[in-house]
Design a protein that fits this description.
3 helices; 2% strand; 2 strands; 162 residues; two-stranded antiparallel ribbon; mainly alpha
């Protein structure tokens, strides 16, 4: 290992190898040193791959958790929306029934009002007929009774009589 580090070294970038400036006469040692360097590079690449895989796994796990939470929120929102729709439909049906009852009540009140108006008109007509009859009776009384009795005529001139 000591030879390996003295003959060749890995630079700041693990993927770049630096070769010695002069070729050593011992080609076996150089080849062995290159194998060690390649092994170090592969270990670095494997470590980097494991770290990248771990980060990717962590990102996937986080993304799955966020997706699961988003799905739960979406499902809760859908349930709330369905409940709101059901509640709104129920209230709308209640309002429609109340409107129908109010319209029915208004129609009934209109019919009652019409009946009352007809009765009032009939009562007014009866009252007019009664007044006319009373006027005829009064006229008949004045003509027949007051003319028959002259002393009553003088009483009719009295201001207390109508």
């Amino acid at each position: 290992m000591a030879q390996r580090t003295s003959r060749a070294s890995v630079g700041g970038d693990e993927a770049v190898l630096r070769f010695p400036s002069s070729l050593a006469p011992d080609k076996g040692a150089t080849a062995l040193d290159l194998v060690y360097q390649a092994a170090d590079v592969f270990r670095g690449m494997e470590k980097h791959a494991r770290e990248t895989e771990a980060r990717a796994q962590s990102l996937c796990t986080n993304a799955l958790e966020r997706l699961r939470l988003a799905e739960m929120r979406a499902e809760a929102a859908e349930r709330a929306q369905q409940e709101l729709i059901v509640t709104t439909e129920r209230r709308l049906q209640d309002a429609c029934r109340a409107l129908e009852q109010a319209q029915s009540c208004i129609e009934a009140q209109k019919h009652k009002l019409t009946a009352i108006e007809l009765r009032a008109e009939a009562a007014e007509a009866e009252a007019r007929q009664a007044e006319e009859a009373l006027a005829l009776i009064e006229t008949a009384i004045r003509k027949r009774l007051l003319c028959a009795n002259p002393s009553v005529e003088s009483a009719s001139a009295h201001p207390a009589w109508p």
